[in-house]
Design a protein that fits this description.
The chain has about 260 residues and is α+β, with helices and mostly antiparallel strands. Helices cover about 60% and strands about 10% of the residues. A hairpin with a 2-residue loop joins strand 4 and strand 5. About 5% of the residues have low confidence. It comes from Pontiella agarivorans.
């Protein structure tokens, strides 16, 4: 915990638009509220102080998201906990503490919706794409792209067969990785991941309260989704198992921040 708070403070000092006195004092006040909290209301107050720095002051820092998620976890609000952990994950995807706490929060969700299984053919052909992070693929692409140019110059200076094979291999694998990353980027532009933050919400078959409920039971705080479309104050969402429905926009938040 102390490690993350020190990193937040360090980021605050180097952030170019950081109003040192006001924002550092706000951060210290949030930390004091978290440290002295003894019940859910106290932790919720600390979490709101952290989120004020995120929402109103525009600070984007994985450790701040993580700490806000911890405060919401202690307050018992799994929706906002998972929302902040998922936002933190974008900045520090390999952080062991974050992954441990996120797993604990996911297990406490009222709605345990199984993820849609890919088709066997897709699983065989695209398993590497589905089971690797974009960060890992970008890193591998960078290494192979540099390797391609290195072996290309080698190939130009020697008639050895190994040089041609290595160059072609680097080029082909780089191209496959690039296609994978571009495809995922396009898909991410078309949908927005989000989390239900209301205690519960009745999902409906259309974009209004006059439509019939989509499910027998309401959806609860912490349920994750992909936002497919927005109409006025209603969101069309897809759940992890592939089912779709409409919910009021006020009942959830997407991971994206303005």
């Amino acid at each position: 915990m102390k490690k993350h708070l020190l990193l937040i403070i360090l980021a605050a000092w180097i952030f170019p638009a950081f109003g040192k006195d006001y924002r550092l004092q706000a951060l210290e006040d949030a930390h004091a509220s978290f440290r002295t909290a003894t019940n859910a209301a106290g932790y919720a107050e600390a979490a709101e102080r952290y989120e004020m720095l995120i929402q109103e002051e525009g600070i984007r820092n994985g450790h701040l998201f993580y700490t806000a998620g911890n405060a919401w976890f202690m307050a018992g609000n799994m929706g906002r906990t998972i929302l902040n952990y998922r936002r933190a994950e974008r900045y520090m995807p390999n952080d062991a503490d974050l992954q441990h706490n996120l797993s604990a929060a996911l297990e406490l969700r009222p709605d345990l919706i199984p993820e849609k299984e890919p088709s066997p053919v897709a699983a065989r052909l695209l398993g590497w794409h589905l089971n690797t992070s974009p960060r890992f693929r970008w890193g591998l692409f960078s290494i192979l792209w540099i390797g391609f140019w290195g072996t290309w110059f080698w190939m130009k200076r020697t008639p050895r067969k190994e040089a041609r094979i290595t160059t072609v291999t680097c080029a082909l694998v780089s191209a496959v990785l690039l296609i994978s990353l571009i495809t995922e980027g396009i898909m991410n532009l078309q949908t927005q991941p989000g989390v239900i933050t209301a205690a519960e919400v009745v999902a409906r078959k259309g974009d209004g309260p006059m439509y019939a409920p989509a499910f027998l039971d309401p959806l609860h705080s912490g349920t994750e989704f992909q936002r497919l479309e927005q109409r006025e104050n209603w969101w069309h969402i897809e759940l992890a198992d592939g089912q779709t429905c409409w919910i009021p926009a006020r009942a959830a938040q997407t991971l994206a921040l303005p």
